[in-house]
Amino acid sequence: MLVRKPAGGQPNPNFVQCVNCKKTLFTAEFEASLRVCQYCGHHHRLNWRQRVAFTFDADSFVETDTGISSLDPLEFPEYAEKHQQAQAKTGMVDSVICGTALLDGRPVSVAVSDFHFMGGSMGSVSGEKVTRALERGANEGMPVIIFCASGGARMQEGLLSLMQMAKTTAAVELCRTRGVPYIAVFTDPTMAGVLASYASVADVILAEPKALVGFAGARVSKQAQVHKAPDDFQTAEFVFRSGMLDRIVPRREMRSTLVSLVRLLGGHLHLEAKKVG
Amino acid sequence: MAKSWKEWEKPILELEEGIDKLEQLIAVERDVEKKASLALRAQEYREKLHKFIDVRYSRLGPWEKVLVARAETRPYTLDIINAVFDEFVELDGDRRIGTDHAVVAGPASLEGRPVMVVGQQKGRNIQERGYRNFAMAKPEGYRKAIRMFEMAERFRMPVVTIVDTPAADPGVESESRGISEAIAASMLSMFSLTVPIVSVIIGEGGSGGAIGIAAANRVLMLEHSVYSVIPPEGCAAILWRDPAKGPQAAAALKLTAQSAHELGLVEEVIPEPFGGAHRDPGETADRIKEAMLRHLAEVAMSSPEAIKQARYDRFRILGRFSGQ
Ligand SMILES: [Zn+2]
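The joint structure predicted for all components is written out below.
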């Protein structure tokens, strides 16, 4: 994570260090550039609040479904403690936040996954929130935008986590039958059970530069690497070359790209809403 | 704890071998009295063996279930297909770049009625395992499955999928050809169908590789099969940095058919014959067939749109959380 450069033993809040090139950056400039390093272009991971603030119309985000929280259905070793620690660290209930927002004045249904909460892993709660975001879009005729950031399914909820892959994918199918566009944004990292479910079947897939994107974890991949993998294996660039995503979009262009896509792909929804109104 | 099924089943196999040898002796023995006493001993051994198998198989722990589910003598998908269906015409190819022998698929006849079958196929020896890629499907396999699902919808054929895979193929080539997209697209296709779908997990239900063809109206599991979000060894490596703690991870993951049923994630656990499916593949196939027919008939009582909706609703309620 981001390391503040120690000055005389105390971290100086005016400076931060790039996690990639290790250069020292002015905090104010770093924030103004949406936490992208001005020297090497490294896109630092965002928490969900930063993501919402950088993407949607100011103060338009309304969080929904705040009442659901995780159980420990398998009584899995150390899960309750780890989950509580993650809550204390992030102030979140679980790894996904969902709600509605405006994008250049147009209503959208939103889900944002936050890697800082147990690696953004998908258990019952995250799966439910992603499903509700997709269903809300399908039922209310709002384009759906999901920011992915996840190591995959949450092993501490066992098979219940695996079932979220099917549940969320079913909700994507619902959006398709209702003609509601769904845009997924792969951020660092988008992996395994999340990549192999709702993330990969979006109508449009965008990714942040150099985001880690892949199916198998590093350990498994290394074992299975019969053929030598390219240097950029399991990055957004590799996945783009493979034809598995539409565009790699630098963070400063993400909002405007989403605005255009929502306007162009969701135009019919706007017209229908007008007819009804 | 045994590391493999062979190791775990060794005492049983040794007893069985001992009985075989006795039988051979009895066959060539001419002395009537000796023959009778040998026969008595063989009978004692058989009773002992029966009890032994009964005890071992009625108390299988989660890790033993993993070993049994992976056993190379267990009936595999094609064994089940050949026994359950009157006719099966294997079709192949993803119509894009290739084929995948980890997935077998095609139309079949179930009691005279056409159905579409998609399953994952393991191999028994080194050559077969290589040919089947250890039943780890590549993108081509899932795209072949999608072809079959779409054909089933066009021709109003119910779909049966047979799950037996450790995982989807994790290799570099599969990544570059979109293994994640292929799995997700396969589920998406299943959710779009208005014909009944029944999935049967006969051995290993390995995470994404399994759910990729198990987005069904009904999911059934053989008694000693397993279904897991992650292989127990992988889970142990992450949790305790020790893949050898697979047995502990298997218990924590609640990956048995019985646990999946208790959690409400599968509709039915199909009992295996005495001593496991591998001791009587024919009887195993008969039981699968009976359950398959029953569930297909139940699902088929609804209208096409209701069948699709029921599948959505089935998965929609899965998950455990508090609050609304
Ligand atoms: Zn930098």
